[in-house]
Amino acid sequence: MKSAPETIAKASFDVAFDTNADVSITKAATVGTIWVLDWISVSFNKTAHAAAALTVTIGGTDVFDIDLAAASTGPYQFLFPGGMYGSTGDALVVKVADGGSGHTGTLSIRYREMSSAPETLTKPTFDKATGTAAAATVTLAATVGTLWVLDWIAVSFDADTHAVAALTVAIDSTDVFDIDLPDDVTGPFQFRFPGGMYGSSGESLAVSLAAGSSGKIGKISIRYR
């Protein structure tokens, strides 16, 4: 292209993990600036590490939390169509928690800055821990004049001792997405919907991870607007 969008800041950078230590990339709170996170990439140099939590915190609140599998080098990439962000003046922190001995690798992010948020965006994401052998559902209630848009879903399991678990999206109580997550695989999994998945104004939207038998404990995150 001949010119870059004015809102783009430094596109990406790398940071090497320290063995047995958390690693974080922080964009400090800045008056008049909204930090926007477009993607995260993570890889480990060795397989000798425990499960490591990957989190995103905006304005001091966790908005994304997913576990990277133990004994796996990756690489992993999580894409956030439209960006993940909060309000002007909020700090942005991307962190990979300590994964034990052998926890060395690389964390990269792509971020940018803007001065105002689109009027249609509500809180961009939230997390829900799944309960053992129980369904986990995140529901956005039907609201007059509101059209819920789903941009992505991320899921991870804490253990590899679960049965097949169905991941579904229902709009106005009608299933519009239904996929099975395999048994005995921790993930993480991410499903992205370019342009968003949505129905009509005033319809509810529900994301559900069906019961997956004993051992189905983990995390589910969505990005909606």
TrEMBL record:
This is Uncharacterized protein.
